[in-house]
Predict the structure.
Amino acid sequence: MKIIKKADKIYPEKLLKIQNPPDELYVEGNMDLLSQNSIAIVGSRLATEYGKKCAKLFSSQLSEQGFTIVSGLAVGIDSIAHTYSMEKKGKTIAVLGSGFNNVYPEENYYLYKKILENDGCIITEYPPETPKSKGNFPKRNRIISGLSLGVLLVEARYGSGGAITAKLAIKQGKDVFCIPNRIDEKTGYNTNLLIKQGANLVTCAQDIIDFYIEEGIEIQQNVNKKEAEKQLQNLKQYQTIYNLIGQLPISANEIFRITNKPITEISEALCMLEIEGLIKNIPGNKYIRN
Amino acid sequence: MLSTVKTMALHGLEGFLIDVQVDVSAGMPSWDIVGLPDTSVKEAKERIRTAIKNSGYELFSRKIVINLAPASIKKEGSIYDLPMAVGILKSIDVIYTKEPENILMIGELSLNGDLNPINGALPICIEAKKMGIKKIIMPKQNVKEASIISGIEILGAYDLSEVVHYLNNNITISSSHITWEECLEKGKKYPLDFSEVKGQENVKRAVEVAAAGGHNCLLIGSPRLRKNYDSKKNSINLARPKF
Amino acid sequence: MIAKRIPSILPDLSFEEALEITKIHSIAGTLKQDVPIIISRPFRSPHHTISATSLAGGGRIPKPGEISLAHYGVLFLDELPEFNQHTLEVLRGPLEDGLVTISRINGTLTYPCNFMFVASMNPCPCGYYGSQEKECSCSMQAITKYMGKISGPLLDRIDIQIEVTPVKYKKLENDKAEETSEQIKQRVNKARQIQRDRYKEEKIYSNSNLTPNLIEKYCKLNKESKSILEIAFNKLGLSARAYGRILKVARTIADLEGSEQIQKAHITEAIGYRNLDKKYWKN
């Protein structure tokens, strides 16, 4: 665990810009994440199946595209956002509303461990012994929104924690994205309300990515690319085949046609590249870059 | 008079030697088949009676008892027609040599006395050879498949009277035998070839591996797309219907 | 179609094998008059309305079923999920043992059925899942249900799974000469000969018959291949039951190349043949 003071150089710049930045930050795990592009995914603890499904989808896709997912380690949408961000080797940050020795809720302690195992980051403004207390949770929401470029609200009842985070985000000048919900569903009241008031309506992860591309923000995928190139050093012999695989799906047969290499060599290369996580096999037996 | 003819029952691929014992005697005209025959064997009565008549032999109304020994083995099918008919003809002295006891017989009779092909001729020959049988009489149509077996005389007959004449030493039937090499020469090449499949190198490779190791394999994909090329080729042949 | 051409590259029959096949066909009465002895490996492709009895064999007078008629040849089931599930489960024992035992009131019969099982299926009910040309119209549930028709134990017995992707028309026009079956067959024959020599003592004929004990004995990996296999398992989420299958297939690939050791290239290619594990039957 590390303690970062406001005066420290490594104190995340983003947090300095918000209204009342915490004086001290207690951090465990990968600190570099704090300065990277991230999206907060927040929502109801009593999530419906629809909400869970959306959280899964957005979390895994956004993290795949290089966004760090920030959330609050609560049950419901938060846990799902954390879990599925890690599924595709993405990174995630959890902001606690209590000290490290009093992780709340207790049933998410395994998730806490898992985040650290997967090179994620846990952060809180409270000293380790601080017990959970009702007032602390809404307060930590300002850190969640403060750390992120924008906040994605999946499902929120009127006046819920998620709604507070969204409100804070607007105050901080962050972008707010909402997933539309049924109008007769209480859990979707606040998301629909925010859409009415002018929040960005999103129906897929690409909406958010496109939004930031238009804003001119460079998404971290570049870092991934660099890493990929580093890995490729070890896999130099497969370079020609890797170069053929792009964002558009290509099949082994097409590679065979182009390169005229024996099919055995191609399948070896494809397998090695896939094991290294550089390319991905999609249904239809085609390959794309990861 | 009592007579015995040898035949064989097939259980799966396993053969059992069966003695067909026939007794024809004076008494109330009747016809009984005993020794665990199933309905298809009992039906043989009518076929045999008519076939004997149509082959030119007279079967007077007498008491006929046929026993298929051992009685513990279930007998099914029509392969016992010929041995039963020969047994009867022997009992009424139409066949007068001793020989039938050393020859194995199988075959189905039709009403005009012709022999119809049967199923399982090859395994019967193989099993018979194992049991030390030297000669076997069967329908002519089955000779081809059986003649690959060496070390046993395979005799093919067209009809009942040919069998009778052979057994009475009036005629000879030459046994036939073909070798494995002859079979290979006669065999046709497999009609389909991989050179007709364009592209799909990775699938072809997978299939090659599967064939080389005898691996089971599963091909996943839309059949419409997989069959595309074939159907295009065949459509030329289909274009003009023939009567 | 590719499956129908498989017999053209299967290794030649020996006299004993031909005799055994002909025996079964003789009992079933499926021999043709002009071909007294079966000299090419049988290819059986029953329609999916087939009953369990006619697949495994049986009836009042027990006759060999399709699996026995495919002895030493290929049993091809087109549109696998359309088959009655109960019918497919019948295959489990015979695929493992190479023989089928039919019990009836009249007695118990055993027919051999050492066949290569080839099946084909659509990726989903509409057939376009994963296709780039047209969008798939099936719901996720429909796809799961469709795939679920093939039970795990049956899938477990399939070593190689390969996706067939459509070939664009332009490519069909390509005049490049394709390999003939005869050329492929020569390689297959060679690989089979290696296997026959190796397994002389073990009473098996090909790599597909390897039991777990024998896999340990004959499919030794060097350090590099071992680590690749381990990484692949962790990263690609392969099921544990795929392990033995991959080793067997890798052994065959090594035999095709005439290599005594299983090399890295062999193991990676074998892993490639399990990729449906990852996509369709995940979890």
